[in-house]
Structure to design on (270 residues):
């Protein structure tokens, strides 16, 4: 069964506006792939590409990049925002990719593989990858921290309060620890040349409103909203007010820093 959380237009628009794209990790993937033939690799496939913000980051290194996703709404935004000639999008389940066997140089999934039928996706990646082709999966820990000068401890407590309020609405499929899901995939991946990397800190400056908008894109917040929209709005308003008070500012457009921890696995097909 596929999870279809990314279908509603307001949600996918918010996703495009607020989600963090960890561009810092793209170089690590490209370095792992090794020497390029004639300056570029041929084909990358970004599975669960969503709105394509991560997919386009691969464009400078490949002749062709194809983003695939199961959600027509996400793909609509990806196509509307596509400015790269060598990037295209196709609707497809991660477990049944629209490529011949041994055709693809790189399969990526960015903050997406936890939604897939993971054993089937690993098999499918192995099928489409060329010999020496690479699989790169990345995502982030549940950990989030906020920083704001002398008020860092106070804003961070408020951040943890926000996340704790959403815990009961977490999708059970995700388990309590996202990195465990990925570590299990890492262990299940049959390629002998593989590496697991954890805890790369990624920081972004963003406004209070942007931080709240980002948390509102989480599936847990969306679940709360679908059960009780008033309660969800009250929670966001309360967190906004607490942040304003802790930072001693009046504008929710004031910036603070969000720190996230990413992990990623890289593996090369023999
Ligand atoms: C959290 S979003 C990540 C999107 C994008 N990679 C990013 O970094 O912003 C997960 C995406 O995976 C897609 N997805 C979930 N299950 C899928 C499946 N079985 N096959 C293909 N796409 C899937 C969703 O539609 C969604 O767009």
């Amino acid at each position: 069964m596929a999870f279809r959380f990314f279908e509603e237009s307001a949600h996918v628009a918010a996703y495009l506006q607020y989600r963090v794209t960890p561009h810092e990790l793209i170089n690590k993937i490209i370095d792992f792939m090794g020497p390029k033939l004639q300056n570029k690799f041929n084909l990358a496939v970004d599975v669960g590409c969503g709105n394509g913000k991560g997919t386009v980051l691969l464009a400078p290194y490949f002749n062709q990049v194809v983003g695939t996703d199961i959600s027509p709404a996400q793909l609509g935004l990806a196509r509307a925002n596509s400015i790269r000639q060598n990037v295209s999008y196709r609707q497809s389940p991660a477990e049944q990719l629209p490529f011949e066997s041994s055709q693809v140089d790189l399969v990526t999934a960015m903050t997406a593989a936890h939604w897939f039928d993971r054993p089937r996706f690993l098999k499918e990646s192995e099928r489409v990858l060329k010999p020496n082709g690479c699989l790169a999966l990345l995502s982030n820990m549940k950990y989030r921290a906020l920083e704001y000068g002398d008020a860092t401890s106070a804003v961070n407590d408020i951040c943890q309060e926000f996340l704790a309020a959403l815990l009961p609405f977490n999708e059970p499929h995700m388990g309590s620890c996202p990195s465990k899901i990925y570590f299990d995939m890492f262990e299940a991946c049959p390629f002998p040349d593989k590496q697991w990397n954890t805890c790369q800190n990624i920081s972004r400056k963003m406004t209070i409103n942007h931080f709240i908008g980002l948390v509102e894109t989480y599936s847990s917040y969306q679940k709360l909203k679908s059960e009780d929209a008033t309660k969800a709005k009250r929670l966001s308003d309360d967190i906004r007010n607490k942040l304003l008070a802790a930072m001693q500012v009046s504008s929710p457009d004031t910036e603070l820093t969000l720190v996230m921890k990413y992990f990623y696995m890289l593996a090369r097909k023999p």
User: Anything to note?
Assistant: The mean pLDDT is 91. The chain is about 35% helix and 30% strand.
